[in-house]
Design brief:
Helices cover 27% and strands 38% of the residues. By secondary structure, it is an alpha+beta fold. The protein has two domains: 37 residues; 136 residues, Ctag/Cox11 (Ctag/Cox11 (Pfam 04442), Sandwich). It is flat, with a radius of gyration of 22 Å.
Length: 177
């Protein structure tokens, strides 16, 4: 009976270790899956070619949406809610953030593009989301975004929505520092 219990215990421990390892492997697998399928709105991170041809015959609407996590004491909004762009043309827009608290805080914006298939054709050249955004108490800052819609964007996609969720990472940065 004791040998059977030991065998069961070893089997259960191996299952737990296997599940733990599988959990770690899921993160890179998920990133690869999202990159291939365009699910989760992950944008194209490849460098944009300066020799891209601008499609003057086509206009794509790009909408800008912002969300703020509950623990983030900022006001955060796009300066322009929507715009029409020619695929292939580099475009610049700004987002405005105001720290409404009495403390210096650090934010981090996480982007998402929908529809997911369109994310493969949306490239950020420069983005405030690439870095932490420190903002002193009571201050306002404009944060820039330079982007490019690939002319290969499928014709049936006429509108892309770029959404940013802003997180308060002040405590995380303080712990690392």
């Amino acid at each position: 009976m004791m040998a059977a219990n030991q065998k069961l215990l070893i089997t259960l421990l191996l299952i737990v270790l296997g599940m733990f390892g599988f959990g770690f492997a899921l993160v890179p697998l998920y990133d690869v899956f999202c990159e291939i399928t365009g699910i989760n709105g992950k944008t194209n991170s490849e460098a944009v070619s300066a020799s891209a041809v601008v499609d003057e015959q086509r206009l794509v609407t790009v909408e800008f949406v912002t969300h703020i996590r509950n623990d983030m004491p900022w006001q955060f909004e796009p300066v322009v809610q929507r715009m029409q762009v020619h695929p292939g043309k580099t475009t610049q827009v700004a987002f405005r953030a105001t720290n409404l608290s009495g403390n210096d805080t650090i934010g981090q914006a996480i982007p998402s593009v929908s529809p997911g298939q369109g994310a493969l054709y949306f490239s950020k050249i420069e983005c405030f989301c690439f870095n932490h955004q420190p903002l002193p108490a009571g201050e306002t800052a404009e944060m820039g975004l330079v982007f490019f819609v690939d002319p290969e964007l499928p014709e049936e996609i006429q509108t892309l929505t770029l959404s940013y969720t802003l997180y308060n990472i002040t405590d995380v940065v303080a712990e690392q520092g």
